[in-house]
Amino acid sequence: MCPRSAEQFEQIKDERRRALLRAARVVFSRKGFAAAKIADVAAQAGISHGLVYHYYPEKESLFAATIEASAEGWAALVASVRAQAGTPWDRLVSLCGQMIAGMREEPEHLLMTVHVYSEDASPGVRDVLRRIRQQVLGDLEVMIQDGQRAGQVAPGDPAALTRALIAIVQGLAINRLVEPEAALPPLDVVLRILRA
Amino acid sequence: MCPRSAEQFEQIKDERRRALLRAARVVFSRKGFAAAKIADVAAQAGISHGLVYHYYPEKESLFAATIEASAEGWAALVASVRAQAGTPWDRLVSLCGQMIAGMREEPEHLLMTVHVYSEDASPGVRDVLRRIRQQVLGDLEVMIQDGQRAGQVAPGDPAALTRALIAIVQGLAINRLVEPEAALPPLDVVLRILRA
Amino acid sequence: MCPRSAEQFEQIKDERRRALLRAARVVFSRKGFAAAKIADVAAQAGISHGLVYHYYPEKESLFAATIEASAEGWAALVASVRAQAGTPWDRLVSLCGQMIAGMREEPEHLLMTVHVYSEDASPGVRDVLRRIRQQVLGDLEVMIQDGQRAGQVAPGDPAALTRALIAIVQGLAINRLVEPEAALPPLDVVLRILRA
Amino acid sequence: MCPRSAEQFEQIKDERRRALLRAARVVFSRKGFAAAKIADVAAQAGISHGLVYHYYPEKESLFAATIEASAEGWAALVASVRAQAGTPWDRLVSLCGQMIAGMREEPEHLLMTVHVYSEDASPGVRDVLRRIRQQVLGDLEVMIQDGQRAGQVAPGDPAALTRALIAIVQGLAINRLVEPEAALPPLDVVLRILRA
DNA sequence: TATGAATGAGCATTCATTCAT
DNA sequence: CATGAATGAATGCTCATTCAT
């Protein structure tokens, strides 16, 4: 009756879905939502444009899924680092180090979060990101406050410091689009923003 | 016939062109090139969409002009600050102060430079920006080197420091899109990146 | 400033809208909603397909407007005949005569009402028609009841007689699609359904 | 190998084919050709859409087969009634009674013949129906002429009477789509069209 | 100039059809 | 036989651009 088991189908579907998400990340992060064509994503994924719709019912769902995946990746990273052992400063060093490394390897993840802020994206998508962003900002702010309490981070409005740190990381990600070869500033330069 | 009226026409035209550019900046900076409609820009400028084509022959020219105006504004700012009297550090303080003030008043100027990096924009437009960007980076790098020589700026690759400074400024501009109400970090936090 | 007055624009728009409706009636009545292409309607109206969307925002609105126009035409006819002087039978003769004449001249009007019953049409469109249909059926039923009271119409459930009369008229309209040359049955044959 | 099993396979295939035809009739009659999706038919038949193509090579063949089956059903009915014993009028009563009963039980059969008239269907399919329709009309016309000769049917163009009778039956079938609950008019109301 | 009607290229989306399993 | 993943032609709709007025 059924030549392929339902499980097999699920596996194939899952795998493709992941591949599609990766392709979408590459295309969307470089072009933004409006300028990216479904055909571009399909080509990047090596499938026909029609097949994209077997996995995501519309361009916007695909974009939303792509955003969500990237954003959740960052949220997971921040949450896991926050739970690490060591001093608050150790954690901040670890986090920034991993963010910069991640940006070097897969700058798309960070770029996605930049594109979504523009009104190119639909309000629904922006809201998804906003929610996750709150988590990240919240976790990061706590880490910065911990550092301030430990005297390792300079005093000052922790919310503003949080924004400043996020800003420099996103700004560097953008710079990689323009000058992929340019050297990223060393970790301690980035950390000077926080250094007591 | 009447040289005065021709001149006046020119004035009117120039004024309109400037108004159009302002409208375009608002729309393009919020939506990016692809998602922005000529009709959006026309509506923002309070004219009919057909009239836009009297001033710019195509959407891309308008985008290019918008980019160019923003970029030249930054270039002019950096160049003028570089020529200011005082110590190198005074100049860097002045520059960052003005950049942050500008971002507060007209965040569109900085956002434009973010959008153009995406492949949403045509290569031609990107090249225009790249050229101006080289000027800005060059001027800024010189200022930073001056500061290093004066012992006011921390040692290290001046190119990397330049990128880091630009990154944080652009990152903060993006943040204003998401949280227009969020406090910008104080000037000295931004300057910590450079501080010896 | 404005080379054409707003009034002129309105006139042109109204005229085109009517022409478009006529073209849509021809195409939709022959093909149904799903099989009719916007390009077909545009071609029939002698305009580009893009222009259709200046007048109706989507295919379905155009279909709905087309349906509504036809249905309202029938409702107006029935209402006006109902108000005519003479005996109830005179009015029924007048109504059937005009319906058959209308079907000869513009069979599209009746065919539209047939297509909409299929699930090809969206529920919203069907509801519009259903409402108007209730009016028509109501008016017609009253006319039949009047005839029964005057002894001119055969006794029996007036609702069923109403449906039977509508049925034969619609059935004849369909037949004109298949055999446009076939003779329509004489008026008195149709009226036999009601004849006392 | 085993002739029995091949035969059984045929039986199974035939049975499925019939089930598919029934499902297709339901779907096509409600939506028309263009709006009906193969997936709809497959779902109605409880099979996968791919399997449909094992029985019919394309959507149009399935539609044609569906039409043909319905049309042939009517042709067979008319032919069998025409051969019945009794007076011409008896036969007409029998025919109309069975047509109305059939419409009550399986309105799809009649609705199919309505849809095919629209240009939604391909010319080939329309021709199939046209041919069968000629048979039905021919048989019916003969029955009406017999009735006229026997003085049981009113005089007048028998072709026009035939169309009128078909019209009312089809019109009533359409009405069942809109108001499935509405009472069908009694048989003798329909027959008034012919009554001498 | 200024307007908005008009055009058509371009892209999202659907769905008939094919085919590996 | 049966399934559903895969393809791509077809079609709705958008919007940059042109142009009559």
Structural class of chain A: mainly alpha
- Spatial gap, N to C terminus of chain A: 69 Å
State the helicity of chain A in percent bands: over 70%
Portion in beta strands of chain A: under 5%
Query: Within the CATH hierarchy, at the fold level, what is the topology of the domain at 59-193 in chain A?
Result: Tetracycline Repressor, domain 2
- Please name the CATH architecture of the domain at 59-193 in chain A: Orthogonal Bundle
CATH class of the domain at 59-193 in chain A: Mainly Alpha
Gross geometry of chain A = elongated
Please give the largest β-sheet of chain A.
none
How many separate helices of chain A? 9
Protein described:
The structure is a homotetramer of 196-residue chains. Chain A is mostly helical and 196 residues long. Chain A has a domain at 59-193: Tetracycline Repressor, domain 2, CATH 1.10.357. Chain A has helices at 6-35, 38-45, 49-55, 59-82, 88-105, 107-115, 123-149, 158-178, 187-191. The longest helix of chain A is centred in the N-terminal third of the chain and has 30 residues, at 6-35. Chain A is elongated. Chains in contact: A-B, C-D. The A-B interface holds A 30-35, 114-115, 117-120, 130, 133, 154, 156-157, 159-161, 163-164, 166-172, 174-175, 177-179, 182-186, 189-190, 192-193, 195 and B 30-35, 114-115, 117-120, 130, 133, 154, 156-157, 159-161, 163-164, 166-172, 174-175, 177-179, 182-186, 189-190, 192-193, 195. The structure holds a DNA duplex (21 and 21 nucleotides).
